[in-house]
């Protein structure tokens, strides 16, 4: 069944749908086989089974515009698909939608060394851009565990963050300009790659983080920066949660950090159990911090050691290790970066939440207390980008509990968690987007007035509710 976007019904059969889409992109760029529908109709979430009607692979912005105009004419709903690494069901086609996959729009062009910019198709993989920057002695700093498969268009649509936000910010900070196709099929060129452009509303910012609900990003000019020098990693064992923030404050008082990550001992033990990453040191503590910084001179390293010794004297840190090579730094990073992949076999229920940095300890304690008390049979795994106030709460499914019952029980957990988020004036989604999984809880972060304005904006750009309906907000 083909999903329609509004009240009227499409008269298209699937054969007619395929025929008309093929006329736009070519017969070889439309798929309806079971494997393709399964693969391209979902993201990393496992809550909603994929049920798309067809997958279409445009190669140009004009083809995307033609697909959107066709969808409006026939009242067919569209779902964008990038690297399919999302964690909020923002790219899941669960109701017969047509999936627009950007895999073939993966060209990098128009590199400008003076402006430090490069143009990327929506399907360019994050790691592909990082490698391109490296080949030109530059650096693209937005980085996360899914960099090898996530795509730039999806990163922009969810305003992806990751492990370097404390120094370099979110995806939003690196988009110089972009091309979008609105919900009416109109092509907009936004900002023209300008550094300064004070001519009214910056519509880039509506599409960044818009999850494809206003229109589809087809191309973006991304900014690059200088390559950091001699990135060095410290992993510290910390006995008390409050001490994590004291360590952060101590290091930031004299150093510019490129990352400050946090993970619990339970999280690290899952990674160590795989046997391919060594423990950082013999001492066991409840919490760990991973600190990354540029050690350009001996003075930088000396300063890090001064701060480490200060933290040891205060009792905030009981043990630590510092990387002596790029290989060792990469292994220390794996203690943090391998957590998501490692725990995936337990079908984790994920919450991606944030507060201002100063509120993290009481915020985390309040949540951990209620989840541990109400669900003693659930294993709780904490980690996250604590240096920017972003925490990942992962609840692992017991082996003897059915997935459906587990997700139902976790829904109650989410209500309690998000009540605490609201109490601390935080966000129910720090970097993973809203999609379908967080949509029922948007009111815990956004006011009724804000949500009403969001609906109004949606109506302006996508009057027929063609673009990724059912995600982020209800039109």
Automatic annotation (TrEMBL):
Entry annotated with the keyword DNA-binding: no
Keywords noted in UniProt: FAD, Flavoprotein, Metal-binding, Oxidoreductase, Zinc
EC number: 1.1.99.39
GO biological process: respiratory electron transport chain
Cofactor(s) of this protein: FAD
Domain FAD-binding PCMH-type: 48-227
InterPro entries per record: FAD-bd_oxidored_4_C, FAD-bd_PCMH, FAD-bd_PCMH-like_sf, FAD-bd_PCMH_sub1, FAD-bd_PCMH_sub2, FAD-linked_Oxase-like_C, FAD-oxidored/transferase_4, Oxid_FAD_bind_N
GO molecular function: (R)-2-hydroxyglutarate dehydrogenase activity; FAD binding; metal ion binding
The keyword Metal-binding belongs to this UniProt entry's keyword annotation: yes
Catalytic activity: (R)-2-hydroxyglutarate + A = 2-oxoglutarate + AH2
Lineage top rank: taxon: Bacteria
Top EC class, one word: oxidoreductase
Subunit structure: Homodimer.
Family of this protein: Belongs to the FAD-binding oxidoreductase/transferase type 4 family.
Name of the molecule in the record: D-2-hydroxyglutarate dehydrogenase
Organism annotation: Thalassolituus maritimus
């Amino acid at each position: 069944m083909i999903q329609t976007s509004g009240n009227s019904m499409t008269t298209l059969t699937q054969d007619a749908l395929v025929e008309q889409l093929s006329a736009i992109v070519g017969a070889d760029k439309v798929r309806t086989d079971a494997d393709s529908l399964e693969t391209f109709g979902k993201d990393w979430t496992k809550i909603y089974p994929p049920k798309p009607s067809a997958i279409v692979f445009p190669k140009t912005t004009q083809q995307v515009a033609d697909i959107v105009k066709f969808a409006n004419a026939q009242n067919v709903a569209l779902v964008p698909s990038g690297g399919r690494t999302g964690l909020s069901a923002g790219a899941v086609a669960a109701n017969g939608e047509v999936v627009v996959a950007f895999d073939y729009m993966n060209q990098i062009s128009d590199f400008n060394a003076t402006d430090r910019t490069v143009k990327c198709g929506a399907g360019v993989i994050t790691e592909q851009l990082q490698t391109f920057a490296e080949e030109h002695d530059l650096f693209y700093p937005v980085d996360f565990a899914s960099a090898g498969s996530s795509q730039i268009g999806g990163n922009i649509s969810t305003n992806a963050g990751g492990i370097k936000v404390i120094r370099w910010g979110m995806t939003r900070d690196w988009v110089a300009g972009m091309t979008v196709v609105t919900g009416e099929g109109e092509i907009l060129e936004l900002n023209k790659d300008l550094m300064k452009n004070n001519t009214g509303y910056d519509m880039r910012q509506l599409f960044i983080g818009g999850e494809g609900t206003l229109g589809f990003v087809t191309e973006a000019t991304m900014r690059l920066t200088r390559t950091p020098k001699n990135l060095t990693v410290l992993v510290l064992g910390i006995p008390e949660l409050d001490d994590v923030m004291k360590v952060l404050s101590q290091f930031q008082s004299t150093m510019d950090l490129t990352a400050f990550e946090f993970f619990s001992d339970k999280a690290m033990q899952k990674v160590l159990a795989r046997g391919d990453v060594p423990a950082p040191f013999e001492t066991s503590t409840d919490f760990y911090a991973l600190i990354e910084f540029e050690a350009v001179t001996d003075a930088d390293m000396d300063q890090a050691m001064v701060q480490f010794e200060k933290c040891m004297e205060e009792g905030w840190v009981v043990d630590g290790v510092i990387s002596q090579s790029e290989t060792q730094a990469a292994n220390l990073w794996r203690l943090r970066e391998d957590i998501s992949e490692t725990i995936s076999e337990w079908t984790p229920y994920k919450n991606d939440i944030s507060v201002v940095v100063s509120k993290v300890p009481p915020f985390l304690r309040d949540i951990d207390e209620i989840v541990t008390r109400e669900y003693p049979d659930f294993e709780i795994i904490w980690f996250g980008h604590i240096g920017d106030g972003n925490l990942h709460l992962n609840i692992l499914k017991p082996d003897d509990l059915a997935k459906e019952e587990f997700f139902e029980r976790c829904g109650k957990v989410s209500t309690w968690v998000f009540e605490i988020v609201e109490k601390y004036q935080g966000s129910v989604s720090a970097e993973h987007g809203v999609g379908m999984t967080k949509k029922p809880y948007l009111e815990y972060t956004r006011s009724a007035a804000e949500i009403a304005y969001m609906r109004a904006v949606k109506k302006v750009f996508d009057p027929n509710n063609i673009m990724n309906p059912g995600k982020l907000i209800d039109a």
